[in-house]
Amino acid sequence: MNLQALKIFYTVMTTGSYSAAAQKHNCSQPTVTFQIHQLEEYLGIQLFEKIGRHNYPTDQARTLLPKVIGLLDNLAQIDKFKEVRRDLKGEIYIGICDGVFSYRLPHLFKRFNFLAPNVNIITHCDTAASLISQINKGELDLALTFNRGNYPASASTYPLKVMKLSLIVNSQTKIGKNAFMFPNQRIDHPFIVSNLNSGPAKFFLKFLKEFCIETKGMIQLNNVESVKHFILSDFGFTYTLEHNFDSEIKSGALKVLPTALGQASIGLILMKNRNKVESPSVSLLSQLIIEELSNPKEEFKDFYTKTLLKYQLPLRKNRS
């Protein structure tokens, strides 16, 4: 099936004539007939019945027509959308928490670049606390960050997705399966992290302290990909967003260990400064971010409370 066949079908249905469709689409009548037959073969239905010298639409064709009209209308809107956005120029400054970069951002930026090729995107990777501060000062147009609460009055936030946090190790690790389930443990491996000041890292360190779990030091590597290489080399363990390691976990190279934290999660949000004038290009990128990164099936009731890490830290029982 192709778009031209749908357009020809629509014209035949609205004009009642193959010859009128050929004239409108600047093609021969046999081409119209061929396109209609191709569409019938694709759908597995008969669209027109020839009686005498005329072709009459079947009931199935009448049922299909509203759907084709809707599709063509949507495509027309998309074409208009693209034309307008191609005229946009300038730069967008967007702050992104480390760990979000690999999460569908290549596809997102590719879409934006296609729609607005003359707009430059300048990214800045930082912690959630720092990004919130930069949004508040008007230094960034947008921020993709994690929910941490206590937002300034200038901040406008949009919940996107609940993201799972997990403890990840090499599949061949000698760390015991239940090493992080009970207090007073000694882990003979270092904690590998991209940023010790990040929310997940601070959250996990509080957990280790609360449960009196000792590790063989800590190593900060400044980016998730470096952390991944260390874990793949069977050196240390990490506590981070599980989605960044999905392919390695599925391949069996890495695995998730249970912890007394249970199913901890963090909320991904889109943040802006409500007092800052929003350009059309920023509006476009915001729309694409919501389309690409939000989960339409997500239940956002109590999102900002449920995804705050400070409410997910378990207290050690029977402390001596």
From TrEMBL:
Coiled coil: none annotated. Residues 1-58 form the HTH lysR-type domain. One of its GO terms (molecular function) is transcription cis-regulatory region binding. Gene3D superfamilies: 3.40.190.290, Winged helix-like DNA-binding domain superfamily/Winged helix DNA-binding domain. PROSITE patterns: HTH_LYSR. Pfam families: HTH_1 (PF00126), LysR_substrate (PF03466). InterPro entries: LysR_HTH_N, LysR_subst-bd, WH-like_DNA-bd_sf, WH_DNA-bd_sf. It comes from the Bacteria. Transmembrane segments: none annotated. Keywords: DNA-binding, Transcription, Transcription regulation. PANTHER family: HTH-TYPE TRANSCRIPTIONAL ACTIVATOR CMPR (PTHR30126:SF5), HTH-TYPE TRANSCRIPTIONAL REGULATOR (PTHR30126). Belongs to the LysR transcriptional regulatory family. This is LysR family transcriptional regulator. It comes from Turicimonas muris.
